Amino acid sequence: MSVLVVGAALLALILVLLALFAPALAPFEPDQQKLLARLRPPIGFERANPAHWFGTDQLGRDLLSRCLHGLRLTLALALFGTLIGLSLGVSLGLVAGLFGGWADALIMGFVDIMLSLPFTLVALLVIALAGTDVAVLICVLGIAYWAHFARLVRAQVLGLRELPFVEAARAAGATRWHIATVHMIPNIVSPIVVMASLNFSNLILLESALSFLGLGVQPPTATLGSMVGQGRDYMASASWIVAVPALLIVFVSLAAMLLGDFLRDHLDVRLRER
Length: 274
Fold this sequence. Notes:
Layout: H1 3-20, H2 22-25, H3 63-99, H4 101-116, H5 119-130, H6 134-142, H7 146-160, H8 164-171, H9 176-184, H10 189-212, H11 224-230, H12 240-267, H13 269-272
Helix pairs in contact: 1-3, 1-12, 3-4, 3-6, 3-7, 3-10, 3-11, 3-12, 4-7, 5-6, 7-10, 8-9, 10-11, 10-12, 11-12
Keywords: Cell membrane, Membrane, Transmembrane, Transmembrane helix, Transport
Protein name: ABC transporter permease
Membrane topology: Multi-pass membrane protein
């Protein structure tokens, strides 16, 4: 196991633990305002307040506390969005690949339509019509990349269904459900895991983009993306307001991608047999 993988695993573990225990670790309430302590830089800079390790924002709120709570909500949004997209895309991709015919044409036609649309505009339309509730945002994130999963799984299934072991199972009377769960899914875990890890990072960036436009989780609730969006007007005078949550986004995305590569190498049945 390489040092890079161990470092990514430790980073991911630390981030997850910070998110889980955010209420206990945060030194202040995330929405607590102290206008007399506004725009204080992190420790090590002039005018820093020792009580605020990462500094304060434009309303005097502690950035460390807001980052911890924001990390928790950001990871939850990305996780639920990834699970929804994965479940929907894998299910439809299996149906399209195994059944073929009109089911394949219908599903892949819808996939092509989804992939041809700029999803940011679709998200803006859905949020404008349904509101900015957290449940709506999770649904928007969930449908963001399901088409990528569906196309990937369909391509993998089309390549597997003509192989001898699948034809033998079909000749033995195995149902399509049995073929899908026993013979198909174990052999396509690797690309699914890699795509899920990449989409996890992409969903964090999508949430950040929506929050930057004011269409994500609404203030005063903190997510990493909303903190970047709210601090953009202060980048010239108080860059730490944007830099701290932005660095957390980079760390989360990097850890997710590196762990995805690690899981691919260890979950791929074909790689293990070599």
